[in-house]
UniProtKB/TrEMBL annotation, chain A:
Positions of WD repeats: 557-599
Name the UniProt record assigns to this protein: WD40 repeat-like protein
Annotated Low complexity bias: 138-157, 174-183
Signal peptide residue numbers: none
Main localization, broad class: cytoplasm
Repeat in keyword set: yes
Organism of provenance: Anaeromyces robustus
GO biological process terms held by the UniProt record: cilium movement; outer dynein arm assembly
One Pfam family matching this protein: WD40
Family, as annotated: Belongs to the dynein intermediate chain family.
Keywords: Cell projection, Cytoplasm, Cytoskeleton, Dynein, Microtubule, Motor protein, Repeat, WD repeat
Region (Disordered): 108-183
GO cellular component terms attached to this protein's record: microtubule; outer dynein arm
InterPro entries (UniProt xref): Dynein_IC, WD40/YVTN_repeat-like_dom_sf, WD40_repeat_dom_sf, WD40_rpt
UniProtKB/TrEMBL annotation, chain B:
Self-association state and partner proteins as the record states: Consists of at least two heavy chains and a number of intermediate and light chains. Cytoplasmic dynein consists of two catalytic heavy chains (HCs) and a number of non-catalytic subunits which present intermediate chains (ICs), light intermediate chains (LICs) and light chains (LCs).
This protein's UniProt keywords: Cell projection, Cilium, Cytoplasm, Cytoskeleton, Dynein, Microtubule, Motor protein, Transport
Name of the protein this chain belongs to: Dynein light chain
Similarity comment: family membership: Belongs to the dynein light chain family.
UniProt-listed GO biological process terms: microtubule-based process
Location of region: Disordered: 1-26
Organism, as annotated: Anaeromyces robustus
Top-level lineage group: Eukaryota
Length: 711, 116
């Protein structure tokens, strides 16, 4: 926009304005001298000239704008001269932030408004100065320009800045100012959170259960199958007069069912690990149920017993566990034997002493840790009569049975069958085997044991690799002439031997020799001399024999009137042995003399005796009355120190001391086994075995009144 | 997958046999299930299906096997195998409860199983 005017007046007005300003300032600053300063080339006008009026016209035409713009009119397809020429020229363009006061959108905040006011007042002040019309004009023209903006005919002009951004920006500022208390320090903060790492997981589903199946299809197989099926159907039809179809289907279902699940259970039970843990749990429950007994076994001792001593009072046995194998309640306990290695393990033989009531026998192995059920059970065809553990291999048990057979069972084997068994073919006893005893291995280190039977034979059995070798050791005869009555056994060997043998051969030639057999019922080997053993017979005689002489006795002891049930050598003294008999007595013998040293009368048949394994003077006996007697020769020579009724209405059949613990085992004829704890007074023993022997020797010498022999 | 097998008729001596007065094979014209571990309901259905297929494709074992296999695939899902023949041996691995081994008509063996 150009002002059309001459150059001179402009400069005049400019100078005049300057002078005004100067004057004003001078008026304010009093201390300055009041002096008008004039440019030197200022023209000097007269009053007249000053009052002269000049008329000037200002218009808004652009003098440089072209007057003859021709444009192509597409409508009329000719060039046309456009009448309207744009006179707008923009020299400076600054976008401001001023807003209209009465704009509806605007809510100017206070400081901004103040600013606005200030500028407006300033403007007003300048306006009121009055002498710059041009200023006012320019202002109005700019306002006009902005208002006329958007006119399509101003195409040539660069588009004026849009007014829109101004209020927008302002609005933003306003909002920011409104929202934050401090508009100056305001800053936006943003944070990027971590993105979780992506992970892949995968699983395998279990494949469906599968099975393999194989067969061969042949014509004959098909034929056979049909024939079989038809036969089956016929059978079914005969049984049930029903239409074939339904029956057939039923039959089919039956035959082709797979009994898979039943087998699975069995497999579990066969698993050795599971078996083991079940056994453990069984023992634990047993320990719980028998807790009191276990405590008694471990800790309880009769205090009274200690104080009073044996002389004044009757020692008492403390009953502990009772062992019953429920299936065998009607059988007699015919044998008892502790395991030589395990202190808690013993084997029981079941059978019958009753001649008319014989049946199958049983061997059951119990442990003290589980009184309710045996660890091992073996069934035998005939009643078990006797048992013995092999000391070197404590899993081997020699068994003698009622039918005369002997067998060897191995607990380590899983089989129910015996390792060895004698038969009529290999040779066996013809009568019940009453006692079996392992002996030392022979020269070739074959294990061997001896057995005695009512048929009068004592047989040695040797365990070879795959057979049981039999060797007759002695045939007992009741013929007393055969036995040597001389008190010096050496004589036999020298003088009488030949005569005896001659007599024997003569006897054997006789036909009635068969009725001459003495039936043996028990035997026991000497402690020192492996060859020597004493044999008890059903006739009441006791013979001392040697494995070296199979036809003669070393000595005969007569004293018992009835069958001998048990003979036992003392465990410390090599010459002393005991015999228990049905004639109610126990006799103590020195095997060099044919008269008993002491006789104990128990008022009932004595079925079993046993020396204690730790003291030479203590032995125990059981009677048919159901009583247990314990003798301590060191304390009382003729009376028992303990006499205790264990069972009523039952006979006790066997008694055994435990080698390691103060426990007695007693079996009765109803299939029960009782364990008893010995009182402390019956557990005393010397440290040296020799002392024990001397202790007994002394007692015997005093009793028999004989002079001591050199041993 | 398709497994099928057919063998030509066995010995010619058969003809003579049939002429005998008491021919047991006259009574053999029913399905005889030799071994089957399917559920009862399924078994009945499948036996029925096999019998129909064999009767429709008489003498054409391949066709019978194919038809049985395809029907089974549709009904009980994929991977069924079927063998029809007069003589063959086999050892197969099958999904449990999906095996049928049966005879039909006195001379045809049918094996039908679902593979894994």
């Amino acid at each position: 926009m150009y002002q059309q005017r001459t150059a001179q007046p402009i400069s005049e007005t400019a100078t005049s304005k300057k002078t005004f300003v100067d004057v004003n300032r001078d008026e304010d600053d009093d201390w300055l001298p009041k002096e008008l300063q004039k440019p030197p080339n200022q023209c000097q006008l007269t009053e007249q000239e000053l009052d002269e009026e000049f008329t000037r016209i200002l218009n808004a035409n652009n003098p440089l704008a072209p007057q003859n713009i021709a444009r192509y009119n597409f409508k009329e397809k000719t060039f046309k001269c456009s009448p309207n020429v744009d006179h707008l020229v923009v020299h400076l363009d600054i976008s401001g932030y001023l807003t209209f006061k009465n704009d509806v959108e605007e809510k100017p905040i206070k400081p901004v408004q103040d600013e606005n006011n200030a500028t407006e007042t300033e403007e007003k002040a300048t306006n009121t100065e009055g002498n710059s019309e041009e200023n006012k004009n320019t202002e109005t023209t700019t306002e006009q320009g902005t208002s006329t903006e958007g006119n399509p005919e101003n195409a040539e002009q660069p588009p004026a800045p849009a007014p829109a951004p101004v209020p927008e920006q302002e609005q933003d500022d306003n909002n920011a100012a409104n929202n934050s208390k401090n508009p100056f320090n305001f800053s936006e903060r943003a944070l990027q959170t971590f993105n979780n790492l992506s992970r892949e997981t995968s699983t395998n589903t279990e494949p469906p259960p599968k099975n393999t199946f194989s067969d061969t299809v042949t014509q004959w197989a098909i034929f056979d199958e049909y024939v079989k099926d038809l036969a089956q159907k016929e059978k079914a039809n005969k049984e049930k007069a029903k239409p074939a179809f339904g029956a057939k289907n039923k039959g089919d279902d039956h035959t082709f069912e797979l009994p898979v699940e039943n087998h699975v259970e069995d497999v579990y039970y066969r698993d050795p690990e599971l078996k083991m843990s079940i056994r453990k749990i069984e023992r634990m429950t047993n320990q719980n149920t028998h807790d009191e007994i276990t405590q008694d076994f471990k800790y309880w001792d009769d205090v009274a017993d200690e104080v009073k001593g044996l002389k004044n009072s009757n020692a008492r046995l403390l009953p502990l566990w009772k062992f019953v194998y429920k299936k065998e309640k009607k059988k007699h306990v015919t044998a008892l034997c502790w395991n030589p290695c395990l202190s808690d393990f013993f084997v029981v033989g079941y059978g019958s002493y009753n001649f008319s009531k014989q049946g199958p026998g049983l061997i059951a192995c119990f442990t003290l840790k589980n009184p309710s059920y045996p660890e091992f059970v073996y069934n035998t065809n005939s009643g078990v009569m006797c048992l013995d553990f092999y000391e070197k291999t404590p899993s081997l048990i020699a068994v003698g049975m009622y039918d005369g057979t002997v067998a060897v069972y191995d607990l380590a084997r899983k089989s129910e069958l015996p390792l060895y068994k004698s038969s009529t073919k290999t040779g066996k006893h013809t009568d019940p085997v009453w006692e079996v005893k392992w002996q030392k291995d022979d020269l070739y280190e074959h294990p061997n044991f001896f057995s005695i039977s009512s048929d009068g034979k004592i047989i040695q059995w040797t365990l070879l690799k795959n057979e049981l070798k039999k060797m007759d050791i002695i045939i007992l005869r009741s013929d007393k002439e055969l036995s040597i009555k001389t008190e010096d056994p050496k004589k036999i060997e020298t003088e009488n031997e030949d005569e005896n043998i001659r007599a024997l051969i003569e006897k054997e030639n006789n036909e009635d020799v068969a009725f001459d057999y003495a039936s043996g019922s028990c035997f026991d080997f000497n402690l020192q001399d492996d060859n020597v053993f004493v044999v008890g017979t059903e006739e009441g005689n006791i013979f001392k024999c040697s494995t070296s002489y199979n036809k003669q006795y070393l000595m005969t002891y007569e004293g018992h009137q009835m069958a001998i049930y048990c003979t036992k050598y003392n465990k410390f003294h090599p010459r002393i042995f005991l015999s228990a008999s049905a004639d109610w007595t126990i006799k103590l013998w020195d095997h060099d003399y044919d008269k008993p040293i002491i006789t104990f009368d128990l008022n009932s048949p004595v079925s079993s005796i046993e020396w204690s394994p730790y003291s030479s003077t203590i032995f125990a006996a059981v009677t048919n009355e159901g009583k247990v007697y314990i003798f301590e020769l060191n304390e009382k020579k003729y009376e028992p120190v303990c006499e205790q009724q264990i069972v009523k209405k039952a006979k006790l059949t066997h008694i055994r001391f435990n080698k390691y613990e103060p426990i007695l085992l007693v079996g009765d004829d109803k299939g029960n086994i009782y364990s008893l704890k010995l009182p402390p007074s019956l557990r005393k023993h010397s440290k040296e075995p020799r002392d024990e022997m001397q202790k007994l020797e002394k007692i015997i010498l005093i009793t028999s009144g004989r002079m001591p022999q050199n041993n | 997958m398709e497994v099928s097998e057919s063998t030509s008729n066995l010995a010619e001596g058969k003809g003579e046999k049939t002429s005998e007065s008491t021919d047991p094979r006259k009574n053999f014209n029913y399905p005889l299930v030799k071994y089957c571990d399917m559920l009862d309901e399924m078994k009945l259905e499948v036996v029925d299906l096999v019998v129909t297929a064999l009767e429709r494709h008489q003498g054409n074992y391949e066709g019978a096997a194919k038809s049985v296999k395809e029907t089974m695939d549709k009904k009980y899902g994929n991977s069924w195998h079927s063998v029809v023949g007069e003589g063959f041996g086999f050892e197969i691995t099958h999904e449990v409860k999906n095996l049928l081994y049966m005879f039909f008509g006195g001379n045809i063996g049918v094996l039908l199983w679902k593979a894994l």
